[in-house]
Amino acid sequence: KEPELETENSNEKNIIVKLFSVISFLLSIGYFIFCIYGCKDEINNLFLIINSIIIVIFTFFIMLSTIIKNIKAKNILGTFSTIFIAIFITFNFLVYKDIIEIPTQSTLDDFTNKPITEALQWAKENNIKVNQTYEYSDNIEEYNIITQNIYPNTLLKKVDEITFTVSYGPNYDKFISIPNMVGWDIDSAIQTINENFLNNVTIEYEINNEVKKDLIISQSISGQVRRNEEIILTVSLGREDELEPVKMINLKEQSLFEATLWLKRHGIKYEVVYVFSENIKKNYVADQETEVGEMVDPKTDTVKLIVSKGKKIIVPDFTTMTVEEVTNWIMENNLKVKFETKYDSKIEEGKIIEANFKEKDEIEAGTIITITISNGPLKMPEFNNFSEFKAWANNNGITYKEDYEFNDNINKGDIIKTIPSAGTVINYTDTIEIKISNGKAIEIPSFIGKNKNEIQKMCNNLGLNCTFYYNGYSNTPIDVAQNQNKTVGSKVVAGTYVNVGLSSGPKPTDNNQQNNNDNNNNQQQNNKPQDTTQTNQCTSTEQHTLKIEKDWIMGGSAQATINTLTEKLKERYPNITFKFETTKECYLSAGYIAENSPITNRSTVNDCQEYTIFICE
After folding, report:
1. pLDDT for residue 535
2. pLDDT of residue 181
């Protein structure tokens, strides 16, 4: 019995081993499929696929070795399994040590602080559209890239277009705080000038027997100043009898500021002659007449400096150049550039439409060149709602006209269609017709003869906003509708305000009852308290049709309209109290009577009553 039990246990173990070997093989296949489809956006996806293939082969041999009963075959399969696990380990080690290089997918470089020309060349080689925007920067050198709108190491196959923000260099219009440097030595002042990018500083030296040489005597301005605002520093040259001849140094290719500062510090007189130069930047010394090493006497000699005006720049025909060529040309000539884009049905996308300077114009270094690039033909986009369309039209200077119509299938405010339709090439001169849905039409019912509660339920079910006011005493029961401001059967949009005039009920027969009814009526007039002083004194029951003249409405100002109506209505209806409220729930402009006003022109009003008029703000 014991051998039989051992056999049974052995069979159970074999089944478990076989089961897990099959599961491992299936999992390895799953991992291989995942590497092919799920890792396609991984930089090292080829490495992952090769690894997964080795794992599949290894688990396949392991599975076969557990299923096959032949001992010799088992040994062979076991040998293959160990070979492939050795291959797996060796392969990964060699890749890790960079002995084997597995190709990876191309990724986006980090161009931060690199020249824009380098990025443009890269984009051209990889067929990627480049947009350039320019900003001032104190930290990034002019024409170097500040930021890019797509992160580095993004797969290149996912990049069709990229925007680089490029440095204009320091903003010389920027306000900064400059300390009072009187008493400082000139070297410390120069350091402060450079750190704050001041570009309009004049340093004057003068003989001074009291103040040590190279100390600042006076400063024209300090505190909050613009970087390009003129600052004059007066510096001590020391005693005149202490001035001595000095050996001339090489001032070539120094800035005019640096060169003249050296001469001033030694009390040497100088004159400046400006010439065009192909190689020397503007306001840098191109040459000097006094030889290097020659002794210069500050009391008798004058040094002549030849200073560059920069290149004599002749503008080429930008429309025949690429954006990359234009950028290179601008950088070579020490100019500044601003790129703009515009749709153009005749100029291919990415080509230059125009520039702010024509061919053969003569310009100086530092001039800003504005280049307009084509976005290609302007096509009518597809919009989800009118707000999107309006923003697009305003941004592109497109004129349009709105046409509203009822539509049972399209929500209120959504676009039914545009003429021309989406995808059609349009011109800037075209006027777009846009049809906007008013939603499902609501037909105005008759509220006459119905009580207030019944009317409110009807309005809620229909999606109307109903407001109520009281017409005064009549034989009609209280809270029963006598009139409405919307015509029965007319079609309106959801949310339309309908003003319904209700009866105040029969006139009371005695004074006490009248006071009670008056109080009840007042509480129902849009929750507005009545001027009880006027009511107690007023006895007239005359009814009027409210007439508001056109010139009483002051379009553009709610308060102006309120002031005018207050005065005019008091003159015309002295026994009626009118109050005013402003509202933003208007389709009309400011200063007009709102559509949802309880009382409007031609409403019925009664003496001894109080009414509220809504004015658009």
Report:
1. 38
2. 96
The encoded tokens of residue 68 equal 């096959």
Identify the burial level of 80 via C-beta atoms within 10 angstroms of its C-beta, where 0-12 means exposed, 13-18 middle and 19 or more buried.
middle
Q: Which regions of 74-210 does DSSP assign to beta strands (E)?
A: 129-135, 145-148, 161-167, 175-178, 201-206
The secondary element (H helix, E strand) that includes residue 499 is strand 497-503
Rounded to whole angstroms, the Cα distance separating 536 from 542 reads 16
Q: Which two tokens stand for residue 502?
A: 């209700």
Q: Whole-prediction pTM value?
A: 0.50
Say what the pLDDT of residue 1 is: 45
- For residue range 512-524, list pLDDT tens digits in order: 444 545 544 544 4
Alpha helices for 271-409 (secondary structure H): 323-332, 386-396
Both tokens assigned to 28: 């390895």
Token pair belonging to 227: 């970087």
Backbone conformation region of residue 256, classed left if phi is above 0, alpha if psi is from -120 to 50, else beta: alpha
Give the distance between the most distant pair of CA atoms in the chain.
Answer: 129
Contact partners, residue 413, CB within 8 Å, separation at least 6: 385, 386, 436, 437, 439
Tell me how far apart the alpha carbons of residues 45 and 152 are, in angstroms, rounded to a whole number: 18
Question: Cβ of 475: how many Cβ atoms within 10 Å?
Answer: 8
Q: pLDDT tens across 116-149, in order?
A: 999 999 998 999 999 999 999 999 999 999 999 9
